[in-house]
């Protein structure tokens, strides 16, 4: 088992059903994991770059946990990547602090996989993850296959406890699969 850091990049954490359920289950399975919930720590997006870099240095495995939004990671996660993975730290001639650390993108989507795979979007989910894989490569980290669970849109399920429980069950499975990789 590795020393894992989960960086949570959900901009609407207080309203999250899926990502929250994944993290709650993951904490039960792996209570020693470290969490960095960006929106709770930095609601104004003023990320403490040095503090986040220290967390990364201490980790062997890093997980980026977020919902896919507008075919990419949410703005708070993007801000994190732009600030924390800086030249001289994560890449460049002297930027080797993250070299050979494992990276797993743990992603939830609102729509079903079939919408991506030959569906109306025209791009596979894997196509959408390529920019993240390139960031990881630029930082000399080890990109591992993303842990993705599709079709977790809870917006229409408010008040429908059966539907919400179905989502939570799928999220617990997502957490179990992710836990086995840590």
Automatic annotation (TrEMBL):
Domain Flavodoxin-like fold: 3-170
One MF annotation (Gene Ontology) recorded for this entry: FMN binding
Superkingdom of the organism of origin: Bacteria
UniProt keyword annotations, A-Z: Oxidoreductase
Keyword Oxidoreductase: yes
Identification of the protein by name: Flavodoxin family protein
């Amino acid at each position: 088992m590795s020393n894992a850091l989960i960086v949570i990049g959900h901009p609407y954490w207080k309203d999250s059903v899926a990502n929250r359920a994944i993290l709650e289950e993951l904490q039960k399975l792996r209570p020693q994991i470290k969490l960095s919930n960006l929106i709770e720590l930095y609601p104004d997006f003023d990320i403490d770059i040095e503090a986040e870099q220290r967390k990364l240095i201490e980790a062997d495995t890093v997980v980026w946990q977020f919902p896919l939004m507008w075919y990419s990671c949410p703005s708070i996660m993007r801000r994190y990547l732009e600030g924390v993975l800086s030249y001289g730290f994560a890449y460049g001639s002297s930027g080797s602090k993250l070299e050979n650390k494992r990276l797993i993108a743990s992603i939830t989507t609102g729509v079903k996989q079939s919408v991506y795979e030959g569906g109306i979007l025209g791009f596979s989910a894997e196509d959408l993850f390529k920019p993240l894989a390139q960031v990881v490569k630029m930082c000399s980290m080890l990109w591992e296959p993303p842990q993705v669970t599709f079709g977790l849109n809870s917006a229409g399920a408010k008040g429908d406890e059966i539907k919400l429980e179905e989502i939570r069950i799928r999220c617990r499975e997502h957490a179990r699969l992710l836990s086995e990789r840590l």
